[in-house]
Write a structure and sequence with these properties.
It is built from ten helices and two strands. With about 325 residues, it is an all-alpha fold. Strand 1 (about 300) and strand 2 (about 305) form a beta hairpin. About 65% of the residues lie in helices and about 0% in strands. The chain has two domains: about 10-80; about 90-305, MFS general substrate transporter like domains (Growth Hormone, Chain: A, Up-down Bundle), CATH 1.20.1250. Helix 3 (about 90-115) runs antiparallel to helix 9. It starts with 17 loop residues before the first helix and ends with a helix. It has helices at about 20-35, 45-70, 90-115, 125, 130-150, 155-170, 180-210, 215-240, 250-280, 315-335; strands at about 300, 305. The longest helix is centred in the first third of the chain and has 30 residues, at about 90-115. A two-stranded antiparallel sheet has the order 1-2.
Amino acid sequence: MRHVPESRDLAARGRFDLAGAGFCALALGGITYALIEAPELAGHPAGPVLAAVIGVGAAASFIWLERRRTYAPGAVAPMLPVDVFGSRQFTVVNVITFLVYGAFGGMIFLLILQLQVVSGFSPLAAGTALLPTTVLMLLLSARAGALAQRAGPRWLMTGGCTGCAAGVLLMTRIGPHASYLTDVLPAVVVFGLGLSMTVAPLTATVLASADVRHAGVASGVNNAVARAAGLLAVAGLPAAAGLGAASYHSAARFAAGFDKAMIGCAAVLLTAAVLSGLLIDSNVLRGGPAGQRVAMPECRVNCPLGGPPLEPDQDDVAAARALPSAVADRRGGADR
């Protein structure tokens, strides 16, 4: 931590939003429990229905509370200043984040089980099957981030989401006695290439779409959206694909549900690709009209991404302080 520069919002006021945090946790917990228990709804409907009502009610209460604390400030600062969503670009990118990470989380969860239940992989082999995706992201994310800074994020995100969808569809080829080299690896590589094209431009676009004063909030919101998407996908996707408790004991039933789930994930990723192509502003990372290079403020760089300054540049501060005296001296010389 000694090497991380300190940053703070000097305009922030108020105590920690304990009620907002409680409503948020209750909303996620209630909705997640309801999704997990949905397959058992016919036998014991009271529990899942009650959990869903509590979760949705808590979510509505959270939104109401945060709006009130944002637009009518009091002694407690809002955990989520909702005015950050005043940027349409920020809202769109977070919707795309939800779709991409929801499909990603659901795919990983079911793929690991498919490799074990249907294909006969050991837990270790199944767990390491996605390592090529990690390697590709380490090698390519920085290049994708730099390319997004020059050419804009729209088409990188569109192509990346489309590539992810293609990789997920290739996973439907994974069946009994699947070979890692011919059945699993091609799908994982295609998915990894798509994800490498998507993640860095997406993250940079989120940071560029929010005001500098909301840079920390923007990053936190985007991370929370990604984590919530994965959580809800893991909870709800098996039920949506018809995978119940008995499916995990039958390779044929699990394989059928897995194929349905992968087709659903691919459809979600293609939706994200369409939204990226239609709604993402290619100039959001360049700060000006197409083809015009605009001088950007000096910023601290984290991995492949450039973000807003965490603290003002000291040379700029000194120049700003010296400006009034310089103007006064020039006027005095003109008078003489």
